[in-house]
Amino acid sequence: MENQDKLNKPIGTKEIPKLEAKEVEVQGLRLDPKTKKDSDKIVGELLVLICKHPDREELIEFTKVKILKGENLKVLGLWYGEDEDKNIQKGSAIAELMSFVGVDSLGELTGKKVQTVEQSKDVTYLCVKAY
Fold first, then answer.
1. CA–CA separation, 113 vs 92, rounded Å?
2. Does 107 fall in a domain?
3. Beta carbons of 86 and 32 less than 8 angstroms apart
4. What are residue 77's phi and psi, to 5 degrees?
5. Is the pLDDT of residue 49 over 60?
6. Residue 47: which residues within 8 A CB-CB, separation 6 or more?
7. Residue 26 covered by a domain
8. How confident is the model at residue 1 (pLDDT cuts 50, 70, 90)?
9. What is the DSSP letter of 16?
10. Which residue from 88, 97, 113, 127 could staple onto 64, CB 3.0 to 4.6 Å apart?
11. SS3 for 59?
């Protein structure tokens, strides 16, 4: 009978609540391997910022950052890459974030507060702001 009740429900009037762009605290970090579509081949690793948002009990995760490149704002994935000296690749999205926040290593991001922003007018998901 419970399924029948579900089949008779009308469309609701309330939108899904959306998190506003606010300052969040980085509580942890993780590197997630990413595979090529339709394959098990790993193409790289994405840095995941695990953050506490003031309007939500559960932690939220970010893998994108919005930066200023020239005169344009760009949303980039936090792809992990190293240079020939095994340091974070200069000019990468991760390096831009680290410079903006003022840290020398990824581990130093834990405990830092970072601002969030909508990715764009069309994509209203939040990302980390680094400009």
1. 21
2. yes
3. no
4. -75, 150
5. yes
6. 29, 30, 31, 63, 78, 79, 80, 94, 106
7. yes
8. low
9. P
10. 127
11. coil
Residue 25 within a domain: yes
E-state strands within 1-131: 23-35, 42-52, 60-62, 64-69, 72-77, 79-80, 113-118, 126-129
Could you read off the pLDDT of 66-98 as tens digits, one per residue? 999 999 999 999 999 999 999 999 999 999 999
Residue 59: closest CA among 88, 32, 25: 25
pTM, entire model: 0.85
105-114: average pLDDT: 98
Residue 117, both tokens: 């922003």
Q: How high is the pLDDT of residue 40?
A: 84
Residue range(s) defining the domain that contains residue 98: 18-129
Residue 10 lies in a domain: no
Total domains in the chain come to: 1
Question: What phi and psi values does residue 93 have, to the nearest 5 degrees?
Answer: -60, -40
Q: Which residue has the tokens 């998901």?
A: 125
Residue identified by tokens 């000296």 is 85
58 class by beta-carbon count within 10 Å (0-12 exposed, 13-18 middle, 19+ buried) = exposed
Q: Give me the percent of the chain exceeding a pLDDT of 90.
A: 76
Write b or e for each residue in 81-100: b if 16 or more Cβ atoms lie within 10 A of its Cβ, otherwise e.
Answer: eeeeeeebeeebbbebbbeb
